[in-house]
Amino acid sequence: MSRRPDPADQVLAEACAAALWAEDKASRELGMALDRVAPGEAVLSMTVSEAMANGHGTAHGGYIFTLADSAFAYACNARNQRTVAQHCSITYLASPVAGDRLSAHAVERALVGRGGIYDVTVRDQTGRVVAEFRGHSRTVKGTLLGE
Predict the structure, then answer these.
(1) Helix (H, G, I), strand (E, B) or coil at 126
(2) What does each C-alpha distance from 105 to 6, 50, 120 come to in angstroms?
(3) Mean of the per-residue pLDDT values of the chain
(4) How far apart are CA 71 and CA 36, in angstroms?
C-alpha cells in the first residue's frame, strides 16, 4: 500500500470488510481470499480452477471480471457506507490457465460526493498483468456495520 491509513480508518476498513465478507457468498464460493484491505484499497486473490476454463482452455473472462469486481467492492465499501457499482469496464491483456493464482489490487482514484472511481489491476503469480478494470461506484442508503 502506498501510504499508511489513519489507525481508526484502518480499523473501520477491516470491520467493514469482515461484515461484507460474512455475507459475500459469491466470492467465498469461488475460492477467493481477502488478502488486504485499507480505506479505498483492497487485494483479493483466487486460483483459477479447471471449472473456470473456457472453450480455449484459458480462464473465462467472467471469472477474471468477478475477481476484479470483488476487489473493487471491498475497496469502495471500506468507509461503512453501502456502495455499489454504477459502471465497470475491463480490458483483458493475458490469458491465465487453470492453476494460475490471480491477485486483484483495487485502488481508489477519486471520491467526490456519492461517486467514486477505482482502478483494479489483476496479476498472475508471476506478476504478469492479466487485466485492467475500472469501476465507478455510487453510495446508497445504509451502512455495513449498522447505526
Answers:
(1) coil
(2) 20, 23, 5
(3) 95
(4) 10
